[in-house]
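Reopening this ticket.

The earlier resolution said the output was attached, but the attachment link was broken on my side. Pasting everything inline this time so it's all in one place.
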Amino acid sequence: MPGCGKTTVGKVVAARLMREFVDIDTLVEHRVGKSSQRIYREDGEEFFRLHETAVIESLAGQHGLVISTGGGACLKPRNRMLLALNGTFYWMQRPLSKLSTYNRPIPQARGVEALYEERAPIYRDLAERIITVKSVEATAAEIIGESSATRGAL
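Inline output:
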C-alpha cells in the first residue's frame, strides 16, 4: 500500500544485502522530468502507469536488485509478470490508519480504505511473504530473514 514504508525499508534491505536499490516511482519521475504528484495532476494516472510499465520492463531481466514498486504497480498483469521473472513479492502490511497520504495523489483522491479493498486481493495473491511493518530495522531484518542472533543482538 502507498505509505507503508517500501522505500525506506527497501533501502535498508539493499544496504544490508549489498545490492542496488531501485525505486520505480523515482525512475518514472526522472524519465518524465517531473514529480509523481505533478505527473498525476498534469498528465493523469494512465500516463504515469504507461511510464511505470516501461521502467519495469527495463528492469525485468536484471538480477540482484531490491525494487520498491509503487502500490499500484501490481494492478497491471503485465507488471506482475515482469516483476515475477526474477523477484520475490513481499506484502508489507501496516494498519491503514498509519499509512501516510502526504504527497500521494491516489490515496488522497480515493481514500486509503478504497485502495485497500481494491488492492488487497491482488497483494494477497502475489505475496510470497506477508510482512507486518514494525520499525524500519525490524521490518528489514524480517524480510532478509535475520534473527536477533544473526544481527548480533542478545
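Reporter confirms the inline version is readable. The two ends are 33 Å apart (CA to CA). Residues 45-59 form the longest helix (15 residues).
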